[in-house]
């Protein structure tokens, strides 16, 4: 399945899951409100952010109640300052309240990923080095968080175990060496990129000799990264990885590597502080 088609399907499925886990057989508190009561509400951010999750919220309210109208004040990828409005919603008061938490949950999480990514991208500005995500995503949110990374200006690493080879220590041991692993990968799928994770210069030399497309430098020191760049001499794409946080980004980029991957973009993000408040009865 094409990535965009898979993402569209995931948006539909996740909206259904969000409603099922929160609403269940029905929102009993919303039943306190008269059924015909109509309302308007506004969603704002209490902190600076990069927006992500518009399609999820649209799908969620479409499934919940087609009478709800959503007027977005920003688009995915937009930067917003604290206090800025994201969205105005109008429709049956019951439906607005029923969908509130599910909508804010997905917005706060995906926007957090986009915001963290944009922060890293800004720190690398001018270096020519790209920041990539990893598979260290929140369970069940792989495609959503990968999309959020792109909204923040980052680059997706492989989506899963099916769209690129990443040959690690245990693969190398089981295959009988780096050369054998790379050769097997070429036989299996010649059109897919082959990346090899290395921990020593000896392994780096073996990966380059085997013709790896990408070499991941796992927990190399800055001096060792510079030496790896010298040895590589442009033969493969060099990726720095391992314990990467914002304090190290600039120094890593200055070693001459081509890209940096970091699980911090997705696995330990702090949700954005969002709020929805009713404005007045329409």
Summarize the structure.
This protein is of the alpha/beta class and 282 residues long. Helix content is 41%, strand content 20%.
Could you explain how this protein is built, in words?
- The protein has 282 residues and is α/β, with parallel strands linked by helices.
- The protein is built from 9 helices and 12 strands.
- A 6-stranded parallel sheet has the order 6-11-10-9-8-7. Strands 3-5-1-12 form a 4-stranded antiparallel sheet, covered by helices on one side. Strands 2-4 form a two-stranded antiparallel sheet.
- Strand 10, helix 9 and strand 11 form a beta-alpha-beta unit.
- Helix 1 packs across helix 3.
- The protein is elongated and about 70 Å long.
- It starts with a helix and ends with a strand.
- 37% of the residues are buried.
- The model has no long low-confidence stretch (mean pLDDT 96).
Cross-sheet strand order for the largest sheet: 6-11-10-9-8-7
Helix content: 40-55%
Work out the strand percent.
Answer: 15-25%
Radius of gyration: 23 Å
Question: Mean pLDDT across all residues, rounded?
Answer: 96
- End-to-end gap: 44 Å
**Secondary-structure element order, as H and E?**
HEEHEEEHEHEHHEHEHEHEE
Shape: elongated
Structural class: alpha/beta
Number of strands: 12
Unreliable runs = none
Instruction: Describe the largest sheet.
Output: 6 strands, parallel
Number of helices: 9
Which features does this protein show?
282 residues; alpha/beta; six-stranded parallel β-sheet; four-stranded antiparallel β-sheet; 9 helices
Could you give the topology of this structure?
Elements: H1 3-23, E1 38-45, E2 49-50, H2 54-64, E3 69-72, E4 79-80, E5 85-92, H3 93-123, E6 130-132, H4 142-151, E7 165-167, H5 169-175, H6 178-188, E8 194-198, H7 201-210, E9 214-218, H8 222-232, E10 237-241, H9 249-253, E11 259-261, E12 274-280
Parallel strand pairs: 6-11, 7-8, 8-9, 9-10, 10-11
Antiparallel strand pairs: 1-5, 1-12, 2-4, 3-5
């Amino acid at each position: 399945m094409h990535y965009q088609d898979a993402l569209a399907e995931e948006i539909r499925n996740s909206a259904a899951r969000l409603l099922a886990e929160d609403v269940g057989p029905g929102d009993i508190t919303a039943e306190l409100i008269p059924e015909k009561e109509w309302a308007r509400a506004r969603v704002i951010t209490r902190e600076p952010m990069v927006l992500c999750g518009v399609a999820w919220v649209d799908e969620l309210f479409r499934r919940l109640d087609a009478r709800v109208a959503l007027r977005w004040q920003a688009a995915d990828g937009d930067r917003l300052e604290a206090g800025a409005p994201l969205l105005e919603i109008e429709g049956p008061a019951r439906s607005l309240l029923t969908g509130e938490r599910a909508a804010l949950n997905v917005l706060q999480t995906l926007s957090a990923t986009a915001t963290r990514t944009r922060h890293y991208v800004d720190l690398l500005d001018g270096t020519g080095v790209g920041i990539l995500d990893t598979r260290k995503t929140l369970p069940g949110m792989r495609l959503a968080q990968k999309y959020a990374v792109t909204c923040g200006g980052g680059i997706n690493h492989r989506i899963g175990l099916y769209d690129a080879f990443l040959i690690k220590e245990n693969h190398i041991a089981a295959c009988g060496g780096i050369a054998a692993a790379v050769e097997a990968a070429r036989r299996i799928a010649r059109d897919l990129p082959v990346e090899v994770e290395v921990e020593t210069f000896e392994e780096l030399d073996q990966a380059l000799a085997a013709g790896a497309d990408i070499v991941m430098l796992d927990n190399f020191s800055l001096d060792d990264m510079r030496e790896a760049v010298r040895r590589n001499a442009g033969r493969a794409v060099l990726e720095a990885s391992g314990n990467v946080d914002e304090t190290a980004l600039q120094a890593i980029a200055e070693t001459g590597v081509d890209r940096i991957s970091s699980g911090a973009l997705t696995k330990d993000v702090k949700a954005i502080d969002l709020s929805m408040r009713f404005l007045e009865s329409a």
